[in-house]
From TrEMBL:
This is NADH-ubiquinone oxidoreductase chain 5. The keyword Translocase applies. GO terms for biological process: ATP synthesis coupled electron transport; electron transport coupled proton transport. It comes from the Eukaryota. Core subunit of the mitochondrial membrane respiratory chain NADH dehydrogenase (Complex I) that is believed to belong to the minimal assembly required for catalysis. Complex I functions in the transfer of electrons from NADH to the respiratory chain. The immediate electron acceptor for the enzyme is believed to be ubiquinone. Residues 383-553 form the NADH dehydrogenase subunit 5 C-terminal domain. Its main location: mitochondrion. It comes from Macrocentrus camphoraphilus. Coiled coil: none annotated.
Length: 556
């Protein structure tokens, strides 16, 4: 009952912040609340809360999704003995994210950032096994890099006599580079992409929060706030990194069979798209796509949680089939969310993705960037259709390994998010971008993405259907290259081997040296002494018998 009340209060606060957002948009308001704690020479230690329409809109989305996730978790985790701990960790996670959103001060941003990192570490290792521990450690260490960058920014900002970035018009380029690296670590851009698929070791409600509106979007939100300080050099760096991440994650998703990992890789692809739109200086469009993406991605994860729950914790899409017979409503909602992800016209994802795509085509870029971008966009559509095919059409007749128990709490939370996924994009498109967008493109530019879909279909058929290259070494190498995130995983495997060698060294040299050198050596020494004593006793007995023999001989 307590968690139901928390969910209800979150929903109420979400509605209140939504109304405040509308009011701030209409009257163009901004609110700044300052708490001054201490003056330290020329520096002021203060806590500032900054509110504008963007803050309220983001908070409304987070609270709404969190409310639905709380309802969902009440049934999904009801048999877990650590349910109370799970709910408290989610609550800390949400509060840390909101704390970071309303902070224009580096010190308070650091507190929210650290809270996100710590709570995500504890949530990823919630299932206490070896895989969860490894995933949580990699997640923590990746986020630690961002924490170090923020600490360096705090020290470098002291020459400005303030840690409030909202009041700074120009900034040192070193600080801007640190901000860029910080955002890349949290939003899992190359070379920090590995932790995001590994974070799937967490329970599904956590995945729904982490990959929709909280942890991974923190880096994007930070760059949106700092966008006015970025110069052309940083924009180009961000463009190339985001394009590479988008292409890598989309290719990996085409070869993956783990349901949650495919959705996680689609999150990575969409985050790269947001970073790419920031590099084009489309901050409002980036924020709009961030909000719409949060809705349909949380819906995708909650639907996948029901599928995994009903198929006895099986996550392989080849064995999750015949949903049209077993769970038709969940199948329809999941397919709608997948089409929204791929940008189906007049759904939420269309209003943001189509605008980003057309604004990009109106800019003057080279052919290589055009090719990478359109190939990534076509791959998004391809892996969405592939996922729908395996879930809905592909049939292995494995109904004996499934049971279908649809709980009302889980259903209600999914239906609310489904309705918002359908209408959220159009509603906020009219609200934020109320002016008409005049976009002039020729026919070839408009249908270019279909050319890339056709080319990739031919490549896909060549790679997987052609029997002449079935056992080709090159084919196996390419599959391994694409499936292991372009061999980025190997870097962390090498680090893991070094850590394991260090663990063995500690085990031998620290934990076992007393046993090895004292007990075993003492036992061996005692055994040796016993053997020697036995030999001495035998020799003495022999000498005694020989003496008696000599005495007897002398007598006779």
């Amino acid at each position: 009952m307590m968690y139901f009340l928390i969910s209800f209060y979150m929903l109420i606060f979400s509605i209140i912040t939504n109304f405040l957002m509308m009011m701030f948009i209409k009257f163009n308001l901004k609110l700044l609340i300052n708490f001054n704690f201490k003056n330290m020479l020329s520096m002021k230690i203060e806590f500032i809360m900054f509110f504008d329409w963007m803050n309220f809109m983001f908070m409304s989305t987070i609270l709404l999704i969190s409310s639905m996730v709380f309802l969902y978790s009440m049934n999904y985790m009801k048999l877990d003995k650590n349910l109370n701990r799970f709910m408290k960790l989610i609550l800390i996670f949400i509060m840390s994210m909101i704390f970071m959103i309303i902070s224009p001060n580096f010190i308070s941003i650091m507190l929210g950032w650290d809270g996100l990192g710590l709570s995500s570490y504890l949530l990823v290792k919630f299932y206490q096994n070896f895989k969860s521990l490894n995933s949580s450690l990699i997640t923590l260490l990746m986020n630690r890099i961002g924490d170090i960058m923020i600490l360096m920014m705090i020290s470098l900002m002291m020459y400005k006599n303030s840690w409030n970035f909202m009041f700074i018009n120009n900034i040192n380029q070193k600080i801007m580079m640190l901000i860029l690296i910080t955002s890349m670590t949290k939003s899992a851009q190359i070379p920090f992409s590995t932790w995001l698929p590994l974070a799937m070791a967490a329970p599904t409600p956590v995945s729904s929060l982490v990959h929709s509106s909280t942890l991974v979007t923190a880096g994007v939100y930070l760059l949106i706030r700092f966008n006015y300080l970025m110069n052309e050099y940083f924009m180009k760096i961000l463009m190339m990194i985001s394009l590479t991440t988008m292409l890598m994650s989309s290719m990996n998703a085409m070869l993956e069979f783990d349901l949650k990992k495919i959705i996680a890789l689609s999150t990575l692809s969409q985050l790269a798209l947001m970073m790419f739109s920031i590099s084009l200086n489309l901050t409002n469009l980036t924020f709009f796509h961030l909000i719409t993406h949060a809705m349909f991605k949380s819906l995708l994860f909650l639907c996948s949680g029901i599928m995994i729950h009903n198929y006895f914790n099986n996550q392989d899409i080849r064995f999750i089939n015949q949903l049209n017979l077993n769970m038709p409503s969940i199948m329809i909602i999941f397919n709608v969310a997948s089409f929204t992800l791929s940008g189906m016209p007049f759904m939420s994802g269309f209003y943001s993705k189509d605008l980003i795509l057309e604004m990009f085509m109106m800019n003057l870029n080279n052919k290589f960037i055009y090719m990478m971008f359109f190939l990534s966009m076509s791959l998004t559509l391809m892996y969405s259709i592939r996922l729908i095919y395996y879930i809905s059409i592909y049939n292995l007749n494995l109904n004996m390994n499934s049971y279908f128990n649809l709980n009302s709490l889980m259903n209600n939370s999914i239906i609310v998010l489904f309705m918002l996924t359908m209408f959220y994009g159009s509603m906020f498109n009219w609200m934020i971008f109320n002016s008409k967008n005049m976009i002039f493109l020729n026919m070839n530019m408009k249908i270019m993405i279909y050319y890339f879909i056709l080319i990739f279909n031919l490549m896909y058929l060549y790679l997987f259907i052609n029997k002449f290259i079935k056992k080709s070494i090159m084919k196996l190498f390419m599959l391994k290259f694409l499936n292991q995130m372009w061999f980025i995983n190997l870097i962390y495997k090498k680090k893991y081997n070094i850590m394991m060698m260090n663990n063995k060294y500690i085990k031998i040299m620290e934990n076992s040296w007393l046993e090895y050198f004292n007990i075993k050596k003492m036992l061996n020494f005692k055994l040796l002494m016993n053997m020697k004593m036995i030999k001495i006793k035998i020799n003495l007995m022999s000498l005694f018998m020989f003496t008696i023999y000599l005495i007897i001989l002398n007598l006779f």
